[in-house]
Amino acid sequence: MKISLLFLFVFAFQLSAVNSNAQDAAIKLKSNTLTIGELIREIEKQTDYLVVYSNREVDTEKEILLKEKTNKVSEYLKEAFANSDIGHDFENNYIVLLKKINRNASAIAEMIQTAQQEGKTVTGTVRDENGEPVIGAAIMLKGTEIGVVSDVNGRYSINVPDRDAVMVFSYIGYLTEEIPVGDQREINVTFSEDLIGLDEVVVIGYGSIRTADVTSAVVSVKPESYTQGSVRDLGQLIQGKVAGLIINTTSGNPSGNSSIRLRGNTTLHGTSTNPLILIDGVPGDFNTVSPDDIESIDVLKDGSAAAIYGTRGTNGVIIITTKRANANIRNHVEYSHYIGTQAIRKKTDLLDADDYRRLISEGVIGTSHDYGGNTNWLDEISRTPFIQHHNLTIRGGNQETNYLLSLMYNNSEGIFKKSYRERLSARADVNHSMFDGVVQLNVGILSRNDNSSSFSNNIFRLVNQYHPTIPVKDEDGKWYEAGIFEVENPVARIMEQDNSSSSLFNRINGTITINPMKGLSLRGLMSFSKYHQHGGWYETQNHISTVRDGRKGAASVGATQNVERLVNLTAEYRNNINDHSFTLLAGYSYEDYDGRNHSMYNTDFPTDIFGQYNIGLGQAIAKESTFWDMNSYRGLTNLIGFFGRVNYNYKDRYLFMASLRHEGASQLWGTEDPWGTFPSISVGWRMKEESFLKDVSSINEMKLRAGYG
């Protein structure tokens, strides 16, 4: 018994000493004026302790004034919370901040257990060898699907569940870094360049060039670098793969598109940040073809590379090359599929009904704010969606004639109820060679059909704003509306509105290439595209907008049709004379666009039976109401361009490229000068080929380049 008591005393003394050491740990601050959140970050950065707290109780934005710039952790915490009801406890490697009224052993243990389950937050900065921040670098936890991308300053923040995790930093053009987390809370990474094969070919405007000869900012993304797994469009396929290419998923709608920005903010068509996207030389977007059909993606980032596309290249150019059949391949069938689901990885931390009632009991808010319910609004409007994707590809042919047929089906439910997208696309590509390769023909046909239903972009705002004590419905089974200005029942918003959209896109393009003599290639590309979309929405007589405004139901229908035609004619000549290599390119392009749409809006319906499909049944026009509208529009534009480029290479050492484009746009007719000229020039010096570096084994490649455009 005495031995047991002695052992217990020694253990308690050791535990007390550990806690005492934690409190005695000193940290140094750059300033004694800071916020509570900044103090917490400094404690975690300079010690081995994780600070655990609830955002509902601790105001991390509150500014504090501390007496000393260097002091013990315990003294800083006493000062920081001296005039508040927050207390602190040291437990092993944790510092727990709790309201003094709630401080007890079980509450402390519960917070530590929650922190252990959620892990810790690791932050840091990703830079390149020049110290510049890397935008869009992928940061993943090895063996998991947990990941983030770095922001415009190269900063990132990721939740790490345990100290044994390994963080993987990757970016196209750089070597991948793997770093064990351990006890680190800040991990900064400097990428080293990954030098790709110098004889690889990258696609540039109206042609291609060896990687070694590139003198402008061109990045090539190959299939092995694509994002694996479920992707909504081509944007997600290369997200985080190209420096400076910012791709975001801006909506939870399965029918939504990725937003993309590469450079600049305006184009000929207005305040668009989207770069020019070319699929096999024809303008399109990230939804034009299935991600399964992509062979390679090349990004022209700077002005010297994109200037040959004139006004359309203001925001950069993304050149997409689709898969084609290989010569002498026997009939070959490929099938792939996946099924999956989606979930909100990190939900917004909001007050629940119990939190509200606690604030009411404490007198923080009045009793009129308790509506008697207990509702998690995000759970009410969300679901576990089902996603299925199927792709079938057939290839075949011989040296003279070969073909590729591709069929894709995708059905994706959205996380929010009543949202979905169903897509069916087909593509055919046929190649034929004649006269021993002197004449080559290519015909491509593409068709895509979409059916979708989406939700209002205000839904997520309403979920975050609507009171958790408000019930979904009242005692009579009607939607409960609290009458808060511009805040409505989000469940009613979704369930009392139906919307649908259907679209059909068809494109046919043909290319003829003639090689009349060695080094000379004449090429003509023609394309015709047609897009038709129709859809609408209907808000029932129980929808808040119709109840509030007395509209008795509201409907809107509309249709859009776009037709685009394109002709590109180019002549290219390549030759090598001793140590001199050069390529000359000249070309002409013409494209026109015919877009038209019409829409109608009506209200005051006698019944909800027909929804949007009998819009003339609304009585708003007859009653001379203000709640109706009709409009239509047509826009015609064309663009004509003449362009040329010269590439020169001396001894694989000194590189030169210059291009010029002169184009006129119908949008500018009537202005002082509807024509514009777009020059560019770039030079490169492959220093590795010089005698003073050629035998340096530690340097694989070194190139100095400069450009203007």
N- to C-terminal separation?
Answer: 87 Å
The CATH class designation of the domain at 12-116 is: Alpha Beta
Average pLDDT over all residues: 81
Q: Please report which band the strand proportion falls in: under 5%, 5-15%, 15-25%, 25-35%, 35-45% or over 45%.
A: 35-45%
Choose one word for the global shape: globular
What is the helical fraction, as a range of percent? 10-25%
- Radius of gyration, taken over Cα atoms and rounded to an integer in Å: 32 Å
Low-confidence stretches: 1-20, 266-270
How is the main sheet built? 13 strands, antiparallel
The helix/strand class is mainly beta
Number of strands: 36
Supply the CATH architecture of the domain at 12-116: 3-Layer(bab) Sandwich
- Tell me the CATH topology of the domain at 12-116: Phage tail protein beta-alpha-beta fold
* DSSP summary: helix tally: 12
* Strand order across the largest sheet: 24-25-26-27-28-29-30-31-32-33-34-35-36
Strand-helix topology:
Elements: H1 2-24, E1 26-28, E2 33-35, H2 36-46, E3 50-52, E4 63-65, E5 70-72, H3 73-80, E6 86-91, E7 94-99, H4 105-118, E8 120-127, E9 138-141, E10 147-149, E11 155-160, E12 166-170, E13 177-180, E14 189-190, E15 201-204, E16 207-210, E17 218-221, H5 234-237, E18 246-249, E19 258-261, E20 276-279, E21 282-283, E22 294-300, H6 303-306, E23 317-322, E24 332-340, H7 353-361, H8 377-381, E25 387-397, E26 401-413, E27 420-434, E28 439-453, H9 459-465, H10 490-495, E29 497-517, E30 520-539, H11 544-549, E31 554-577, E32 580-603, E33 629-650, E34 654-665, E35 675-686, H12 691-694, E36 703-708
Parallel strand pairs: 3-7, 8-14, 20-23
Antiparallel strand pairs: 1-5, 2-4, 6-7, 8-11, 9-10, 9-12, 12-13, 15-16, 17-22, 18-19, 20-21, 22-23, 24-25, 25-26, 26-27, 27-28, 28-29, 29-30, 30-31, 31-32, 32-33, 33-34, 34-35, 35-36
